[in-house]
């Protein structure tokens, strides 16, 4: 009996947990985040599909009205630019598929041989690079066109229905692009920041786990192997950050919202792109550093090794501070943050110089390729340079933004 009650309580708790997660998800939809963009995309897709259906079914009395709403939803993308590109590709793919069926059907008639020829040609043309991800729609359109062609009773009806398919696709794509452009057009300025936040936070977590162990001289093989594995997993996060910056830039293309006065001076993402590029190089250097640390098991445990490890931990602590600041980058506070980053970069440079001085004072074999000291010093130099470059890029971006910012008279004029 007790087990049954406990089981029921577990089920109830799980149910409450799911409901709570759903409520939190809709609560987050009120902010400018992924949830809000998801709901907006669903709402706009529904609106575009409904308008397309009404036009295709009630106005045109089309025989296959579903082509229009299907096309409208298919080209509803996260940016206006992508909607335009995908609409052009999709219309082209459908036109080619329907055209293939029309030409080959006219030459060979509605037979199995025609279907085979249409399929071969459609699949081959679908691999054409300019069609991109819409290449598969060539064969899809050809199959629907063949079905329509076979069911028609006369040549005039066949050509009329094939032409109607293209018209319906044009209507659906047009409505989809118009809705995506005029109804809450997606403007992903913040996605560039989110990408930097995620990548910098991952770097901060990794380096933040490394420097306390180095300060304490704890370089067990299991620990260093774990660092090396985590460093190797930074590559997908780097790609996600690159994609986020590209999406942010792409969202400004053909977007009417960027013409608003408060958005006119926020359409360049060169600074964020340079930051992500620099952080990508930092991730490579961190991965190389973890490999060197993972191979540092032949150290004899001398006082020189202990001192070097402690100093290297201090140096990594300064880098973790920079990564933490980058994980909090906010365009609205970028001026103050850029100043803090430059100060943190200067402190990291001082730590690196002190590390080199202590290594030379301790007569460590920095030039011996069989020892990790020289390699670790080289990695420290590269990491310092990359973080310094990252901070300089952000500061330069802030200075340029201030130079081009509208004056108070411009804002109210």
Topology:
Elements (H helix, E strand, L loop, with lengths): L1 H27 L5 H26 L7 H8 L5 H29 L3 H14 L10 H16 L3 H28 L6 H27 L5 H12 L1 H17 L19 H25 L8 H24 L7 H28 L10 H33 L3 H5 L1
Helix pairs in contact: 2-3, 2-7, 3-7, 4-5, 4-6, 4-7, 5-6, 6-7, 8-10, 8-11, 8-12, 9-11, 10-11, 11-14, 12-13, 12-14, 13-14
Task: Provide structural commentary.
By secondary structure, this protein is an all-alpha fold. The protein is 77% helix and 0% strand. The longest helix has 33 residues, at 372-404. The relative contact order is 0.08. Residues 8-16, 261-267 and 408-413 have low confidence and may be disordered.
First CA to last CA: what distance? 76 Å
How many H/I helices?
15
Average pLDDT metric: 81
Describe the main β-sheet briefly.
none
| Number of beta strands | 0
Rg calc: 30 Å
Please tell me what the overall shape is: elongated
What share of the residues does DSSP label as strand, in percent?
Answer: under 5%
Key words describing this protein structure:
413 residues, mainly alpha, disordered C terminus
Summarize the model shown:
The chain has 413 residues and is mostly helical. The chain has helices at 2-28, 34-59, 67-74, 80-108, 112-125, 136-151, 155-182, 189-215, 221-232, 234-250, 270-294, 303-326, 334-361, 372-404, 408-412.
